[in-house]
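User: Can you predict the 3D structure for this chain?
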Amino acid sequence: GYMEIGFVKEDNVAAFIGAGCNIVVGEHDQNTHFLVGEEKFRGGKRYQAANTSMKHLAFLRDPRTRQIIGEPEYGKNNLKIQERFIPIEKKKRFHLPHKTSMLIALSRDRFFQEGHFV
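Assistant: Here is the predicted structure, written as structure tokens:
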């Protein structure tokens, strides 16, 4: 598996945030990347726990972070799982060289008020 937390303005996804997505990126806003390669470790509850924990860590590691931006692959189950357990906002569908993604945003306030912690 692979997990990464970084700042949006230092990531390639920043080039895709612009007109038509209604996102203003702050200096301390972060993004997360999460990949599980082993089939036996995939699944709703495992994904929910790991992804929610990673978002929680991102907000805790820098209290100036107002939102977390993500670009999960469009049409995959992980986006559906995130919608069930994390109050994300879908912003726009866009194409990267290796996948079609959905740009999502998770605000700090909504995460701590509406997030389902396991």
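Strands lie at 2-7, 30-35, 67-70, 89-95, 100-107. The two ends are 20 Å apart (CA to CA).
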